[in-house]
Amino acid sequence: MEAVDLVPDVDYAFVGADALAGGVKPDELGRRLASVWAEAYSSQIPQSSLLEFDSDGARFLFDLASAAGAERADRTVAAWGHSRPAPRPRDESYQRGYPSPQGRTARPGVSVRLVQPGTSV
Question: What is the DSSP string of 18-42?
Answer without folding.
Answer: HHHTT-S-HHHHHHHHHHHHHHHHH
